[in-house]
Amino acid sequence: MSTNPPIPLRPTTKPLSDALSKEEERLERQTDEGAQELRPTTREVVLAGGGMWPQDDLGDTMIINMGPQHPSTHGVLRLMMELDGEDVLRIKPVIGYLHTGMEKTGEELTYVQGTTNVTRMDYASNFANELVYSMAVEKLVGVEVPERATWIRMMMCELSRMASHLLFQATNGMDIGAVSMMLYGWREREEVLRIFEYVTGLRMNCNYIRPGGVAVDLPDGWQQRILDVCDLVVKGVSEYDELLSQNPIWRERTVGLGIITTEECLALSITGPILRSTGFAWDLRKAQPNLAYDQVEFDTIYTSNGDVYDRYRIRLYEILESVRIVRQCVEKMPAGDYRVQDKKITPPPRARIDESMEALIHHFKLFTEGFKVPAGETYVSVESPRGEIGCYMVSDGSSKPVRMHIRGPSFYNLQAIDPMGTDSLVADAVAIVSSIDPIMGEVDR
Amino acid sequence: MADDTAREEDHEAEAAGDVAEPAPIPDDVAAAVVARFPGSVFVDSHGQAVVYVEREVIADVALMLRDEEQFTMLVDTVVVDHLVDGARPLVAGIAPERFEVVVNFLSHARNRRIRIICQVPESQPTAPSLTPTYPGANFAERESYDLFGIAFEGHPDMTRILMPDDWHGYPLRKDDAPARVPVTFKGDPSPR
Asked: Which of B11, B73, B120, B157 is within CB 3.0–4.6 Å of B99 for a Cys-Cys bond?
């Protein structure tokens, strides 16, 4: 159908008579309001197209743009959709509107400063970005992170997964029309962000996980606060479940919509909840465990239909699995250092700077020049809320990377729009984009 | 650091002893690739299997990995510009060029990864596209084209993806610095 040559649109403009256009020109030369009122109101008559929509197969399709400033495209995503009436024939995502050259910036920053940069990529689950960056640096340096730092990292990553999936529940509800869901999702997410502020000082873009460990130790009394938030989130999730999962309107809007198969997912490099919604239980936390994921109990959530409803459910129940992991972290949190005691990698405590010349020198060197990383290359990947996030790092032995590349899961997952959206309706395309849950900061980097 | 030098020496020893008796490759997939494609070199990079292959055969390597070795997913395609990388670790048997195309593969069935790297000269910045084999490489190769100017031959839609269509230059190349504004001081002789 798309191979047919485009036919001209039906006449939309009524030809103006010569006299009328001369009068028009005369009026347009005048600028006062009185003349404007005299402007003939029948200048353009748009014809509706003459009756019924054509039933023939003339290839009468049109291409419309959705975005880049469309409330349901999650930031600045532009979709070019070829439509036949209301049926979507194909979708092409057009990205780059949020491209800020973060990989180029990453080459200009030292390894100490680098996490500040990468934490702004996937701004809805920033800990995963910081984690892959730090793990790549640690792999090149060859440093082992203390056990407590590992557990803190795992706990913060799972809290971040909760926040990200709560954000998804909010925006997904808003896109599909359950506006009250939006308020509830934001409400619970805010409580998780308060934990981030309490632990790291910042609600978002925390820059907490750094090469060698984490920035600061957990504050006093953190256990109770985190457990309280866990209870709140569990209560919230049961409310969402009650509100949406069996809601007939919600099911009408989501079940059987935007179906993708496992084969398509694997071919298109799609990971995370989208892959798991097709019945393929692949989770890097289970398959290739890093941190301490092999010491906690949790289940991989997967369903078999591959539609929008399944992706909603997977993300909903993954919140509960994250709560399980966080509770085990609170219970099993080991004592010890929160960062590696290597003076060449982690800065000295503030108090030591006043009394030790070496501490002052190390502090100065770390925050001006940074530490040197042996030449080499490595690729590290973890499971972010959106799928496999990876960091490919090339070092030349200096204190800045030659190449720092983040494999953003949203970037690859966006390729799923076309197979999912084909043969759907325009209104459903919104639900499909929402179910992919792209974060444009990570797509465009 | 000490570990790394040890590894380098290991590797050099392996390369030196190549003529007499090639050292066994610990990774069987990498061994299969090296055996199939002459000119390929295996490197253990921090415990990860890396195979340097000739640029011309990288599509065939991908096809072999997909059809024979159960590598179900192309995880990532990256390009690296080594223009100013003085301390670049050289791989014996591989002539270094300015650009490297790095492709990460993942096998779900066998739960393992492999990385394939090929060299791309500055004078002819092209590489075979893997999109016909792994459609997921589509965006990544467009990004590499956009930011490094490496044209992937056989790609269905080799256009810019992140930068505007009328952009000149390739931003992630080391000699392309569009955002660099020289600092000017009061009283400086300037063209203005």
From this structure: B120
Mutate which of B100, B105, B161, B167 to disrupt the A interface (most A C-beta within 10 Å)?
A: B161
- A113: how many CB neighbours lie within 10 A of its CB? 17
Number of domains in chain A: 2
3.30.460.80, 3.40.50.410, 3.30.70.100, 3.40.50.1260: which CATH number matches B27-153? 3.30.460.80
User: Using an 8 Å Cβ cutoff, are A413 and A374 in contact?
Assistant: no
Determine whether the interchain pair A412/B139 forms a contact, defined as Cβ–Cβ distance below 8 Å.
yes
A80: left (phi over 0), alpha (psi -120 to 50) or beta: beta
Pairing verdict, β A209-210 and B73-81:
unpaired
Judged against a pLDDT cut of 50, whether residue B137 lies above it is answered with yes
Range of the domain at A24: 10-51
Cβ pair B161:A96 closer than 8 A: yes
Q: What is the pLDDT of residues A44-100, one digit of tens each?
A: 444 444 444 444 455 577 888 887 877 666 778 888 888 888 888 888 888 888 888
Phi-psi region of B152 (alpha: psi -120 to 50; beta: other; left: phi over 0): beta
The verdict on residue A92 lying in a domain is no
pLDDT per residue over A289-331, tens digit each? 888 899 999 989 988 888 899 999 999 999 999 999 999 999 9
Return the structure tokens found at A291: 């941190």
Q: How confident is the model at residue A20 (pLDDT cuts 50, 70, 90)?
A: low
For residue range B61-79, list pLDDT tens digits in order. Answer: 999 998 888 898 999 999 9
What's the CA gap between A68 and A436, in Å, rounded? Answer: 17
Residues A218 and A198: beta-carbon distance below 8 Å: no
Q: Which position has the token pair 């029948």?
A: A42
* Residue A289's CATH number: 1.10.645.10
Crossing angle of helices A147-176 and A179-200, rounded to 10°: 160
pLDDT given for residue A73 in this prediction: 67
Residues of A in contact with B172 (CB under 8 A): 103-104
CB-closest option in A99, A271, A375 to B87 = A375
Find the chain A residues whose C-beta atoms sit closer than 8 A to any C-beta of B.
95-96, 99, 101, 103-104, 139-142, 266-271, 280, 282, 287-288, 374-379, 381, 388, 390, 392, 394, 396-398, 402-403, 405, 407, 411-412, 414-415, 444-445
Cα–Cα distance between B129 and A266 in angstroms, integer? 18
Reading the block at residue B3, the tokens are: 């570990």
Shared domain check, A269 and A139: yes
Asked, for residue A80, whether it belongs to a domain, the answer is: no
Task: With CA atoms as reference, report the closest residue to A344 among A368, A365, A319, A375.
Answer: A365
Which one of A405, A414, A440, A445 would you mutate to disrupt binding with B, by most B Cβ within 10 Å of its Cβ? A405
For A254, other C-beta atoms within 10 Å of its C-beta total: 25
Residue with tokens 């009026």: A27
Name the band, by pLDDT with cuts 50, 70 and 90, for residue A421. confident
CB B100 within 8 A of CB B117: yes
Cβ atoms of A44 and A24 within 8 Å: the answer is no
Question: What does the DSSP assignment read for A287-302?
Answer: HS--TTGGGS------
* Rg, Å, chain A Cα set: 27
